[in-house]
Amino acid sequence: EVQLVESGGGLVQPGGSLRLSCVASGFTFSKYAVSWVRQAPGEGLEWISYVNSAGGETYYADSVKGRFTISRDNAKATVYLQIYRLKPDDTAVYYCMSGATWHYWGQGTQVIVSS
Q1: What is the pLDDT of residues 51-105, one digit of tens each?
Q2: Of 42, 54, 45, 39, which Cα lies nearest the Cα of 9?
Q3: SS (H, E, C) 60-98
Q4: Pick from 78, 57, 58: which is nearest to 68 by CA?
Q5: What is the DSSP string of 49-61?
Q6: CA-CA distance, 54 to 37, in Å (whole number)?
Q7: Residue 92 in contact with residue 66, Cβ under 8 Å?
Q8: What's the DSSP call for residue 20?
Q9: What is the Cα–Cα distance from 29 to 96, expressed in whole angstroms?
Q10: What residues form DSSP beta bridges with 63?
């Protein structure tokens, strides 16, 4: 069974940091790129970051560039999203996605940025 399981979300104050994790199983994780997307309350999905299969190529949405860092450890079948200087606008459910046609999704992890 293919699974992507996100974790690491929570309630954090503005300016704080979090590290989200996405653990994969049931498919050859190291063959595929991974993206993180998020969905803020009442909004659509927003793509925020991408890492290629080997981990050497990364991209970010302008809204998070300079504050978010994506990385992966293929030995652990895990992708990370390190988030710095959190803002209230970062409040969302964060999902990782992968697969040849981006059809593997996790259940999401909630991030709430509030004082």
Answers
A1: 999 999 999 999 999 999 999 999 999 999 999 999 999 999 999 999 989 999 9
A2: 39
A3: ECCCCCCCEEEEEEHHHCEEEEEECCCCHHHCEEEEEEE
A4: 58
A5: EEE-TTS--EEE-
A6: 20
A7: no
A8: E
A9: 12
A10: none
Q: From the CB of residue 99, how many other CB atoms can be counted at a distance below 10 Å?
A: 17
Between CA 105 and CA 72, with CA 96 as vertex, the angle to 5 degrees is 130
Per-chain mean pLDDT for the chain:
97
Spatial CA neighbour of 38 closest among 115, 100, 112: 112
The values of phi and psi at residue 65, to 5°, are -60, 130
In sequence order, what are the residues at sequence separation of 6 or more whose Cβ sits closer than 8 angstroms to the Cβ of residue 49?
35, 36, 58, 59, 60, 61, 64, 68, 70, 81
What the block records as the tokens of 22 is 């996405």
Q: Go through the chain and tell me how many residues it has.
A: 115
Query: Where does residue 56 fall: left (phi above 0), alpha (psi -120 to 50 degrees), or beta otherwise?
Result: alpha
**Is the distance from CB of 108 to CB of 36 less than 8 angstroms?**
no
Tokens of 46: 């927003």
